Amino acid sequence: MNAFMEQGLAVLKRLGSNIDRGLTADQVAESRKQYGVNAFSKEKPPSLIRRIWDSAKEPMIIMLILAAAITLGVNLVRYFTGGEADFLESVGIFAAISIAVIITVVMEGRGAKAFEALSKLGDDVSVRAIRDGQIQLVLKNDIVVGDIICIETGDKLLSDGRLLECSGLHSDESALTGESAPVSKNADTVYDDEKIPLAERENMLHHRRQWESDCYCGW
Predict the structure, then answer these.
(1) Please, where are the H alpha helices in 57-194?
(2) Which tens digit of pLDDT belongs to each residue from 46-69?
(3) Mapping DSSP to helix (H, G, I), strand (E, B) and coil, where does residue 177 land?
(4) Taking Cα atoms as reference points, which of 194, 214, 217, 215 lies closest to residue 204?
(5) Is 0.90 surpassed by the pTM of this model?
């Protein structure tokens, strides 16, 4: 949906929302069913066997496995031909491989748990949304497409949205563009080029950006 190419009220009409009443409870449920929740989709974590297999495919591990196989083969030939065999060398290489794989799997597991914990830090953050004609506090994950969010100075958005109304609004988009100066926003701007860069869409507000005015955003 290219909301930046439509008037704000046209976006609300298309989504079945109303600038004064927002969405009803039934519309919220329908929007959530159609578009999903306001959260990144999570892939099923790989099984332990898959993690071990992926770790064993590292180039260094493969080289160690080849070295261990060659060493074992040489010592087996020596053993069956009456020569002097030293299997401790092969055992040592296989032990090193096992330790390396175990460390890799454990560290990846800890990293995945840490990332999951960080991703949940903002789950209990609430925003002010207009629903059933009233301003209500809504959790981040409960925001749906078509919601009208009220933003005050210093707030950070929890989703991208089309600007509906504002006055003297400036946005800190340094994390998006690298530009330290606040960017001016205008709710009345409409674009006719769908290829306009994200950072140049002055009628849009973006996730985790900070504002220096009050405004209404439609999702």
Answers:
(1) 59-80, 87-119, 174-177
(2) 888 888 888 888 888 888 889 888
(3) helix
(4) 217
(5) no
